[in-house]
Amino acid sequence: EVQLVESGGDLVQPGGSLRLSCAASGFTFDDYGISWVRQLPGKWLEWVADISWNSEIIFYAESVKGRFTISRDNAKNTVYLSMNNLKPEDTAVYYCSRAEYDYWGQGTQVTVSS
Fold it and tell me: Which of 102, 105, 113, 86 is nearest to 11 (CA)?
């Protein structure tokens, strides 16, 4: 069974940092690119970042470029999203998915507020 499990969400003050994790199982992890997508309050889903199977191809949304870093450890079947200089507008539920968007995790809540 394919599973993606996010963790690391929290309440953080503006300017703070968090690292989200996405632990994968049930498939050959290093055959797949992984995406992070977020759902802002009351809004639709917003794509955040992509990483290829070998980490050689990475893309970021303009809204997070320079503040967020996506990475992966294929030995641990885990993708990370390091988030720095967080802003209130980063408040969202963050999901990881396979790059085909066929399997998703349950999401982890990030709240940026003073």
Answer: 113
Do β-strands 92-98 and 108-112 pair in parallel, antiparallel, or remain unpaired?
Answer: antiparallel
Describe the strand order of the beta sheet including 58-60 as a list of residue ranges. 11-12, 108-112, 92-98, 34-39, 45-51, 58-60
| Predicted pLDDT at 101 | 87
Residue 54 token pair:
């070998």
pLDDT for the residue numbered 42 = 85
At residue 14's C-alpha, the angle toward residues 10 and 20, to 5°, is: 35
**Residue carrying structure tokens 């797949």:** 32
Rounded Cα–Cα distance for residues 34 and 56 (Å):
12
- Confidence (pLDDT) at 44: 85
How many Cβ atoms are within 10 Å of 26's Cβ, its own excluded? 11
